[in-house]
Amino acid sequence: MLTHLQIRNFALVESLELSFDTGMSVLSGETGAGKSILLDALGLTLGDRADSTVVRHGSERAEIAATFSTDSLPFVTTWLAEHELEMDGECILRRTVSSDGRSRAFINGQPAPLQMLRELGEQLVDIHGQHAHQSLLKREVQRQLLDEYAGHAPLLKETGTHFTTWQRLNQEHKALSRLAGESDSRLELLRYQVEELEALQLKEGELTSLDEEHAKLANISRLQEVAQRTANRLYEDDDTAMLTSLERMVRELQEMQSIDPALTPVGEMLEGAAIQAREAAGELRHYLDRLEGDPERLNAVDQRLGAIHELARKHRVEPEALAELQEQLQQELTELESAGTRLVVLQREIDERLTSYRNAATRLSAGREKAAKKLAELIAANMQELGMGGGRFDITLTPLDAIATAHGQEGVEFQVSANPGQPLRALSKVASGGELSRISLAIQVITAGKGGIPTLIFDEVDVGVGGGVAEMVGRQLRTLGGDRQVLCVTHQPQVAAQGHHHFRISKSSDGTGTRTRVESIEGEQRVEEVARMSGGIDISEQTLSHAREMLASANS
Fold first, then answer.
1. Which of 65, 103, 154, 504 falls 20 to 30 Å from 376 in CA-CA distance?
2. Is residue 389 part of a domain?
3. CA-CA distance, 554 to 556, in Å (whole number)?
4. DSSP secondary structure string for all residues of 22-74
5. How many domains does the chain have?
6. Above 80 in pLDDT, residue 415?
7. Rounded Cα–Cα distance for residues 330 and 474 (Å)
8. Residues 472-492, buried b or exposed e (16+ Cβ, 10 A)?
9. What is the C-alpha to C-alpha distance for residues 492 and 433, in angstroms, rounded to an integer?
10. Which residue range(s) make up the domain with 219?
């Protein structure tokens, strides 16, 4: 519910902070005092359009912040969490409008596009009257109200689940059918390509191994020449062999170590070098013994590499990618070959799911038909009490053209005739704002215990009524305030007297500017305000006494 409203430099309001509680809160004041300013300001935090004219004259920008308690609003808490905007038990909607017309919106301190503000706002507040937040005019909301009244949540979930699964299976069937339709020529090609790749029998790492082997076989002569020359330099040339020279140097240094021990480390290093040279010489001998040319093997490797590269060129891939290509083509071939079998299975699953959906949707239709009749009768009876004698109300269920929807097989539309002799028309076609507000009130009172938007605002729902009807409107609003938070802008004392809380709106001028002021009133202040609403400027003791009676009666 709405707990706090803060307004800065908006229209005639310089600075204003209001706290709201549960129940029914009344907003009253003389004509022109600025009662609509509060609703306009709140509307901005709910996503209404804005321009620079809302900024108080002489100010750089207007700012409005509305705070809502979300402890008992799981759907709002879920929405905030999904958008990573959650705050512990609270939701703060803030809107700024600068003097150049630029506007910014925030949800729990985070910048947000206007569409998100509207989406969230529609879950928090519903404004009835000459304002934009009239969700009851939307057919989907009318359907939701009927289903909430009928307690259809489990059946709706079952219907929606069957529909979603049926839709997913249908999409899979269509995709597979398109694939199967192209399968004949594609199958032939795939089988040939897979057989060709399988015949190649390319093993993992084989290409690298072949490249290395080919390089060795193709350069056998050069390898022999370099290895033999190195061996000769190491140990085969009698006088110039490196190993012979090292051994001689080691012997000479060993003889000198007895004269100067400082040569010992050098001698040890050269002795190590001689040992490694001797080992290298041995390895070279073994290498040369094994190193033989093999023209036949070289030819075989050439042919194998040629086959691999030729197939890679054919498929326009690198030779290294042939194994992955074979896996991809094999997977596609398997899918195509099994498409026919899968299509049969899918069609059976589709038929079964559609049957389950229709069974659930049929039960939903029957429940709606029964609930629609009862709900329409209750709303019509409530309309009579709200000054629309002879008015009628009906809820029509119209079969949809689509074979199925997640919400069932029919559309729901509220139809009303506010006056005797007038035909039933869609609720969205009702011309009178006052009638629409009172019809909405009649609907809200009947469905109040069935969930819905937590804060309801009624803007002058008592237009065109008075006396007993106005009192009944007030009682209806008070009853509704027992289940929801209700804010009501009114000119009628009978309505104002029914409020749990009362705010008085006034306007003053000091010659330099005009300001709107809002204050919470109770006790004698409230008696005086109700009396003013009843008797005008000159308030008699009798008027005050009547105001006390109305307030006492409302609280009895």
1. 154
2. no
3. 6
4. SSEEEEEE-TTS-HHHHHHHHHHHTT----GGGBPTT-SEEEEEEEEE-TT-H
5. 1
6. yes
7. 76
8. bbbbbbbebbebbbbbbbbbb
9. 17
10. 153-366
pTM of model > 0.85: no
Q: Which amino acid is at 369?
A: E
Burial of residue 254, with CB atoms counted within 10 A of its CB: 0-12 exposed, 13-18 middle, 19 or more buried: middle
Give the length of the chain: 556
Other beta carbons less than 10 A from residue 521's beta carbon: 17
The two tokens of residue 293 are 């040319």
Whether 183 is covered by a domain: the verdict is yes
C-alpha span between 101 and 69 (Å, rounded): 30
Going 327 to 329 to 334 to 335, the CA torsion angle's sign is positive
Q: What is the pLDDT of residue 448?
A: 64
pLDDT tens digits, 374-402: 999 999 998 888 878 888 999 999 999 87
Name the DSSP letter for residue 386. Answer: T
pLDDT exceeds cutoff 70 at 33: no
Contact criterion met (CB below 8 Å) for 482 and 445: no
- Do the strands 392-399 and 455-459 form a parallel or antiparallel pair, or are they unpaired? unpaired
Helix, strand and coil percent figures for the chain, each rounded to 5? 60, 15, 25
Structure tokens at 265: 């480390």
Contact present, 41 and 545 (Cβ < 8 Å): no
CA distances from 204 to 139, 213, 300, 483, 491 (A): 64, 16, 19, 73, 88
Residue 248 lies in a domain: yes
